[in-house]
Amino acid sequence: MWEIIKYILLGIVQGITEILPISSSGHLVLFQELFSLYEPGLVFEMFTNMASFLALLILFHKDVITLVKGSFLYIFSKEKEAYKEDFFYVIKLIIAVIPIGIFGLLFKDYMASIKNLLTVGISLMATGALLLTIFFTRNSIKDHDEITYKDSIVIGLVQSFAIFPGISRSGSTIIGGRSSKVSLQSILKFSFLAYLLISVPTSILGIYDLTQTTQSINVLGYSLAFIATFIFTFITGYLVMKKLKVEHMVYFGIYCSIVGILAFSIFIF
Q: Which domain holds residue 161?
């Protein structure tokens, strides 16, 4: 019974922390160390990521359909001007995910080897400090909604640091976007759509690894973790898009700082 509860808890943690700027990978490490909830492996992580992908795909299905349709019509239709904005928005998304894709492939094994409380603690403290900086500088930034090519490059480069355990992907996207003076709502939409884009190959790889793995798989546990991740990703994503404001960054900044200090202290002592 405890084994099944473990899978559900890991799914809930993945679903909530994948969306909020507090690092899903960092919290999984914390849960492992504090509650002996050891993650069943990389295949499991890819499996729950696929659940988050499906939840966000449903949540943003209208935007996805519009962008895909607009991009194809821009390429194949004679009336290119009508679909120009959609096509180049997709190009900006591709630009933004290239850095994290490259660094993720190059340093995947190394990042797995440093997935511990020390790295997570330092990374969470750094994330917390940057989120607090966003909060305290919020009134000095004049927002713009349209994401430029420069913005997508900056967001992509900052987002690449999310390969470190404890650095939040959504948090790094917010940090990169706000440093380029992009409005929070535009950043969030761009961040989640970028997640969908980079999750396509990850999800395919997860399905392949799941069919090829020789390790024993708790089918019920995996299924319940998938469902929990899907539900909590969808709910959290919906609430974030509706309710999250720049002013709320102070809470996430304080939370990441406290949890980071806690993780660092546990490792030292």
A: 2-268
DSSP 93-158: HHHHHHHHHHHHHHHHHHHHHT-SHHHHHHHHHHHHHHHHHHHHTGGG---B-S--HHHHHHHHHH
What residues form DSSP beta bridges with 182?
144
Number of domains in the chain: 1
Look up the pTM and report it: 0.92
Of 177, 159, 169, 154, residue with least CA distance to 49: 169
- In angstroms, the CA 1 to CA 45 distance is 21
| pLDDT tens per residue, range 67-95 | 999 999 999 988 888 899 999 999 999 99
3-class secondary structure, 61: helix
Rounded to whole angstroms, the Cα distance separating 234 from 127 reads: 24
Is residue 254 exposed (0-12), middle (13-18) or buried (19+ Cβ within 10 Å)? middle
The SS3 of residue 250 is helix
- Note the pLDDT tens digit of each residue in 111-136: 888 889 999 999 999 999 999 999 99
Summary count for the chain: helices (H), strands (E): 11, 0
Degrees to nearest 5, angle at CA 132 with 126 and 137: 125
